[in-house]
Amino acid sequence: MFSRSPRPLLVCLLLTALPLQAEVCRQDNFDKATAVSERLMQKEEALSDRLLDYLKDARAEFFAHEQSSQHLTRQGLIGWEKQAGRSLAAQTEHMVSRLERVEALEGRLMFVEDNLPGAQNLWRLLIKHCRQEDYPERAEMARHNGRILAGLTDDLKTDRRTQAVLLDTYGKEVDLLKAANQARDRMAKQEAQRQANRAKPGEAPWPGIFDKNRKFNPEKIVWKDGIWSCAHYRADGVCSQVVRVKDIPPD
What we know:
Keywords: Signal. Residues 187-210 are annotated as: Disordered. This is Lysozyme inhibitor LprI N-terminal domain-containing protein. Residues 1-22 form the signal peptide. This protein has helices at residues 27-61, 74-84, 88-132, 136-197, and strands at residues 220-223, 226-233, 239-247. By secondary structure, it is mainly alpha-helical. A three-stranded antiparallel beta sheet has the order 1-2-3, with no helix packed on it. The chain starts with 26 loop residues before the first helix and ends with a strand. Mean pLDDT is 83; it is low at 1-20.
């Protein structure tokens, strides 16, 4: 198998223009082919490790995609934050960042995919010329190295599948977290409205106006620049609480 070189290697196009009678099955051409192959294998290995790390994290991180919109209740949101260990807003930002990093791996995948055919062709050329130039041992070595490189094709297919799974799951996670944030905002506005509509002492009309037992029982009344209605009727039909429905704009 190829030795792993710790220093970065530049990807090159292998065989430079050679005189027609020049020998191709040379050590320097083997070195070039090996350098290209090692570089591609290192790139794919680092890419695969990154994807597997994300996949491992996913099992511990994801929770929103297991929910549905019907669970976007106040208690459900609190439960999500407790499970994530951070606020919904912070969790959303975290997941958006994850999604962007998985998307960014597309460039690395394409680099290996685009350069792999050229590297494979390199070994095929060396096999062909080493046989023609009567170097059977070198031809066999080139064939062996080409076989090792061919394994990258399956590795890249696996990487593609892993990336697709992560993109789909992270995408759903981000969408549902955004929906959860929107639900929380709506709840906050509704609560603020309820607080605003809650009458202060002396500001609300007498609840008995809305007594259902009376002949005249209005659904709404105008009182102190506002429209009021009964918020709660007791079992005997008497109103126990009034609410300000909306303000009347000044003339």
